[in-house]
Design brief:
The structure holds two protein chains of two kinds. By secondary structure, chain A is mainly β. Helix content of chain A is 5%, strand content 53%. The two termini of chain A are 22 Å apart. Chain B has one helix and ten strands. In chain B, a hairpin with a 2-residue loop joins strand 2 and strand 3. Classes of the chains: A mainly beta, B alpha/beta. Strand 1 of chain A pairs parallel with strand 8 of chain B, so a sheet runs across the interface.
């Protein structure tokens, strides 16, 4: 415990914490290494993410924040290897408690993990299937918007961002490969995205949406412009040694039938894109280590549904093996709240009679500094 | 599709009216400046302080009890000398006293980088 007695502000003596003061850039980041074993596949060791965050305060009202990520350890030209990406790079102009401006590369505020994905903040070596396949994280794009604190526990953020590229949609991962990610992004069909969040002590709930077009890659085809709408609600609760979280996310793709037919004309194969994707999960976690331990061991269990063929356009049938669910159980060891040693096993199921979902065993270490 | 667009408008509309009907426990109001010390407990978690608004009378001596539910955060009242570190989860609490002897609205910000939403991690101290 620290006890500091402060007199009148002008004469107070306080310890200075390192942080985002004017003119002093800050450096922080997070990393993850994974060891993954999926049924029938080779065991894989991977430096999954190496992320550095640089921040700078021009003034108390004008701040810059950025996040650069290297995935899978290295990037080699013309080879399918890792990836270097700018995940965030924006400037905040603080105007008023209820209204502030943000411009740059922003995280789409949908779901829990997309904006809050430092490794110690979630259980499991990998991010949830719902966040990876349905949402899909890490979803970012260039944009401009506003954010603020509305009082009584409510806050919001809302942005105008480029739309998606429907030519990248797939049956297995939905809209994931349609993200433009801020590089030469076509902004002729922009989207609106936003989140309203409510916080009480130990409890956070949020509602998010993304709605916009996705047809700029199909302008030479005589079809209805595909549109995408994403809706998501989520909640987290922590009390004592217990935690719970859940999320429900739905993606609606308008014009999916015409999209499938158009892409089939181009490639010869129908991508079988659904008109609705559905994801949901519920997770419970409990700290099982004694209170007297500063180290923490947390056991968790999660059930997920990630169905990328939840509803099909007329004339198309779902691929039942993509109507998936999974049970994930595991544990996280925190020698420090910013360092997480993770273990989990999962069993995936689907609605197919002939294709069996795999089991997976994962180990990982993630840390934030 | 139209339903989702209307849902977005509805969400933003809720954002405008919700604070008026929400549970008032999220904000802490201290109205008696005659008491010796007013204890205010603030919890930090990526990326918000709870409560996010603190209202006191001028002259109130505030004793902040600061804890975190995750990493260490900073607790800085802008334009004052108060800039404290909030220890990590289950590593205790920081206790600081602050004499609110200047009226106005003061921004409280997280002064230690804590992740993707760090720059927006703010609260407000209102001294009436």
């Amino acid at each position: 415990m620290g006890l500091l007695v402060i007199g009148a502000p002008a004469s107070a003596q306080t310890p200075q914490s390192s942080g985002s003061r004017e003119g002093v850039p800050t450096l922080s980041g997070y990393m993850e290494i994974h060891l993954n074993k999926e049924q029938d596949l080779p065991t894989e060791a991977d430096l999954h993410r190496f992320v550095l965050m640089v921040g700078h305060s021009f003034t108390d009202r004008l701040k810059f924040w950025s996040e650069i990520e290297v995935e899978h350890a290295f990037v080699e030209g013309a080879e399918e290897s890792g990836e270097v990406a700018i995940e965030q790079a924006y400037v905040d102009l603080m105007l008023h408690r209820r209204f502030n401006l943000r411009a740059g590369m922003v995280l789409v505020p949908v779901g829990i993990v997309n904006e809050r994905h430092e490794p110690p903040t979630f259980h499991g070596v990998e991010r949830t299937f719902v966040d990876s396949v349905i949402v899909p994280t890490t979803w970012r794009d260039t944009g401009i918007g506003a954010f603020g604190d509305l009082g009584r526990g409510f806050s919001y953020r809302a942005y105008l961002v480029p739309g998606l590229d429907a030519t990248g949609f797939t049956a297995e991962e939905g809209i994931k490969d349609g993200r433009q990610q801020g590089g030469h992004a076509d902004a002729s069909d922009p989207a609106v995205t936003g989140r309203l969040e409510y916080r009480q002590a130990g409890f956070t709930a949020g509602g998010s949406f993304w709605t916009g077009g996705s047809g700029f890659g199909l302008i030479r085809l005589d079809i209805e412009t595909p549109t995408v709408a994403v809706g998501s609600i989520d909640a987290r609760y922590r009390r004592g040694r217990h935690e719970a979280r859940g999320q429900w996310s739905v993606v609606s793709i308008g014009g999916a039938g015409d999209l499938n037919r158009a892409l089939q004309l181009q490639s010869g194969n129908s991508p079988n894109i659904a008109s609705r994707l559905l994801g949901a999960y519920g997770e419970l976690a409990t700290r099982v280590s004694p209170d007297r331990w500063m180290h923490e061991v947390v056991a968790f269990g999660r059930y997920e549904i990630f169905d990328t063929q939840n509803k099909m356009p007329d004339g198309f049938l779902p691929l039942e093996e993509l109507r998936r669910s999974a049970i994930v159980v595991g544990a996280t060891y925190f020698p420090d709240p910013d360092v997480a040693y993770k273990f989990d096993v999962s069993r995936e199921h689907n609605k197919s009679d002939g294709v069996r979902g795999p089991w997976r065993v994962n180990f990982g270490v993630g840390w934030w500094f | 599709m139209r339903a989702f667009k209307y849902s977005g408008v509805l969400l933003l509309s809720i954002a405008l009216v919700a604070p008026r009907v929400a549970d008032a426990r999220s904000d802490v109001k201290i109205t008696k400046s005659q008491d010796a010390v007013k204890v205010i407990r603030v919890t930090a978690e990526r990326f918000a302080f709870t409560p996010s608004e603190i209202v006191v009378e001028k002259g109130t001596v505030i004793e902040f009890h600061l804890t975190s539910d995750d990493t260490d955060h900073g607790f800085r009242i802008v334009d004052t000398e108060l800039n404290a570190t909030i220890p990590k989860r289950r590593r205790g609490e920081t206790v600081v006293k602050y004499v609110a002897d200047t009226a106005g609205r003061f921004v409280i910000e997280c002064s230690r980088p804590c992740g993707a939403g760090h720059t927006a991690m703010r609260a407000t101290l209102v001294v009436k």
